[in-house]
Design a protein that fits this description.
95 residues, 4 helices, mainly alpha
Length: 95
């Protein structure tokens, strides 16, 4: 079941400037991708990117930087490694 509370990273001051619908979208991404293997992650990210286009959700570079910094601040070293892998996959897909 998806958490109904606001995680600590969403309460960071710089993240407060990001619209709530974008933060909800990201929280869903984190929740849904938590149990995926490396092999399952790329198709998931591609589907999520398509859903983001359909729902017209995009992030400015400033929003993305604030969100990544906030999430990393509240993450374990393993979570940070996983996040870095996801970010690299997403960068490859956007080229």
């Amino acid at each position: 079941m998806e958490p109904s509370y606001s995680p600590a990273w969403m309460r960071e001051p710089d993240v407060q400037k990001v619209p709530k619908n974008k933060l909800d979208y990201l929280q869903k991404l984190v929740f849904e991708s938590a149990s995926l293997s490396q092999k399952e992650l790329l198709p998931f990210l591609m589907a999520l990117a398509q859903r983001g286009k359909t729902e017209q959700i995009s992030f400015s570079p400033e929003e993305a930087q604030a969100i990544v910094a906030a999430i990393k601040k509240h993450s374990t070293p393993e979570e940070i490694r996983k996040m870095d892998r996801i970010l690299k996959l997403m960068q490859r897909q956007s080229r």
